[in-house]
């Protein structure tokens, strides 16, 4: 009887402990401050059993504090029939008191394709927990075991990968009983307390009590701030294709030999067609441009990701036959078309997206999510081609792949280079506004030209439906009321990568009257500058990924019967962060026209946290000084 009671007490204690450990009310204040979710307990075990066999076991406990934390549960795993199989998968949901309210077995998880609707074929799938919370906070315990034959991708140790998520405990271990040579690269570990136990062939890390990273305006990407350990094997397998590499030269050569080589043959009829197309072109640059436009007109982007096809381009002859392909297939096809005319080019792997993520030059491993084409030697600087777009100009990348390290895959090995950087003076928007004022309304004619990154952001307007154009411009001119568009026209100069807009519209008066005076705001178009709040406790550096220049001129035709009574003084500001110039004067040709000139330049750059106050002052001063008014008085 005594033994039975002891057992019951032990069991009761274990259950109470388990239940208490999932209570939300016991969380430390430093873990809930600025947090939408708390990673309570994470354990990742990577077991590399052979070059082509790896098992990843995951246990992840997350407490979601509010609706903004739902996305951090991450109770899912990817798989495909030929490479990765989910051996087990389960989830338990607990309320704020730690009581279990839902249990999911593997068969209860939702299953769907892991790629978007632009994919024609894919065998990549995801099995995920579909849970809609009734109240907050709640806790999810997720456990899984995934076995895979591809070992070229090793899950990194990355306990924090987003703002507003704190970490109570996170552990990572890689076992490697066959002693396959491995490499790892640590970053940002000096900012936290970390326990590690690494040997030549195995590694382990553990961290505790990491407060949430609170987002700060104009701060770097979260990945540049948080702890991470990248891991790679020197001997690896990709969907049954084995390789050996420990530097970018070797890794690029392996990719060329196994993924690219021999896939660029073309039909003789296609070669003859291209030869005829470029016969009158005088330079390789002109030939390449003609071929690029031919490729754009002949193909469209549809992703195909079956088996190794997730990394290997489909044959150039197949793209030529069907007229579509993914980024790999279209880039390889363009490469083949150029090669048919003796023009050399390089398949280039990149991380695409406006955040400017780099292929890490210091760590050779399978990286990237997109492919573009590098064409050296046909101009003063390398030419770069985005082969998935049917509308982008020749040698224009835009903010999708600008200013970042990429991997060129060449016959003699890989090479890390950087894509073009669109600098402040290149990212130019120039606007001329003619505004005719009356006492209760206005008419306006606007001519705007965009170059550099703004070109890529704006040229799509031309192809929108009239209804969508009206909605777009009403948002752009959100400071103006009752506007009606009488005319919209556009010119897309792809030769110069320059997009022009011309608008004619009317609207209600945007100025105020005071007796016999008009107070006229001089910022007819508001500057594209954020108002930034004060932050006395700034932690992170200030970063501007892309600089820009806006030059605006507003010619105000003042109402009949009014004269200028007072104008603000001219202003010129120069700082490390950029410059601002503003002036207003009566036109020399017509004294009834006020000419307002405003120039704003914001520099690309990276500044320490203690410069944030100066940076904030610069931005807010631009907004304040742009809001100045002229005083018009009615003639007596």
From TrEMBL:
Q: Which residues form a coiled coil?
A: none
Q: What Gene3D superfamilies does UniProt report for this protein, alphabetically?
A: 2.60.120.1130, 2.60.40.3140, 3.10.620.30
Q: Where does the record place the Transglutaminase-like domain?
A: 277-375
| Annotated signal peptide | 1-18
**Positions of the DUF3857 domain:** 53-213
Which superkingdom does the taxonomy of this entry point to?
A: Bacteria
| Keyword Signal attributed | yes
The UniProt keyword set, sorted, is: Signal
User: What is this protein's name?
Assistant: Transglutaminase-like superfamily protein
